[in-house]
Amino acid sequence: MTKIKNRKIDPSYEVHLGLYQALTGPDEEDKIFKNVSRDFFDLIVIDECHRGSASEDSAWREILDYFSSAIQIGLTATPKETKYTSNITYFGEPVYTYKLKQGIEDGFLAPYKVVRYHFDKDLIGWTPPEGMTDDLGKDIEQRTYNQKDMDRILILNQRTKLVAKCVMKLLNATDPFAKTIIFCEDIDHAERMRVAITNAAGHLALDHPKYVMRITGDSVEGKAELDNFIDPESKFPVIATTSELLTTGVDAKTCKLIVLDKTINSMTTFKQIVGRGTRIEEEHGKYFFTVMDF
Question: Are the C-beta atoms of residues 222 and 213 closer than 8 Å to each other?
C-alpha cells in the first residue's frame, strides 16, 4: 500500500491512497491518473462522496470517468441530493445504510440531547434608537435586525456575554472540564467568544491559561493545541471556539458539548458538525453532546 504524492503513481503497489488534488489539476501535466491504463484499478472507494465526486461539472469527475471500468463505491455519512449534486444519480441507490439511531443503539455512537436557548433579540429582533452610533462612532442603519444579522452585520456585546454565561452555567452544572466546541459565525466572532468565555469562566480560566482556546485557521497558537484538544489523555484545552476549522475531519472522541452560535443553512454541514460529538471510545463510555441552538 502506498500514498500517492509528488505527482507520481507507482504501479508496483496494490493499494493506492490519494487525494483528488494529487491526481489531477488545471494543466494536462497535472493529470497523472492518465499515466496508468483505464483498467489499472479494479476497485475505487470514494470517501466523503457527497463532495466533488457527486457533482456532474466537477473537475474531479474526470478521474472517475477515466476509470469507469472499475467498481466504484461511494461512502458518506451525509448524502447530498440537490439540483447540482446527487449521490444517487451517480452511484445509484444505496446498497447499505446505517441510521444514527441504530449506531447509538449498537453502542458505536453517543446518545445526545438537545438544549435550546432563545434570546429575545433573536426572536423579536432589535431596532436601534434613532441616531444611535456604534463603538466606532458610525451611525447604525435604522432597521430591525434579527437572528440572521447577529455577529455578521450586527454585534451585540451583551449577547455574546450572555451566550458565554449560558455555556458556563451548563458546564458548571455538569462538568466544567467537559471538552466543548463552540461554533461561531467567523474568526472575529470566535475571538470575541473566547474572551467572553474567559471572563465567564472566572477562576477556571485564571488558574488554567489554556482552559479556552480559539482554534481557527489563522491562529498559530490555537492550531498548535488542536492535537491536545482531541487527545483523550490531555485535559487542556477544555473549550475550543472556532468557525469552520473543526466542522469536519476532527474526531473529538471525548467532546461532551457542542454549541452552535451561528446560522447553519446546510443540513449536510449541520450533520457534520453534530458528528464531532457523537463518536465515542469504548474505554470512556457513552458521552453525550448538547446542541445549544441560538
Answer: yes
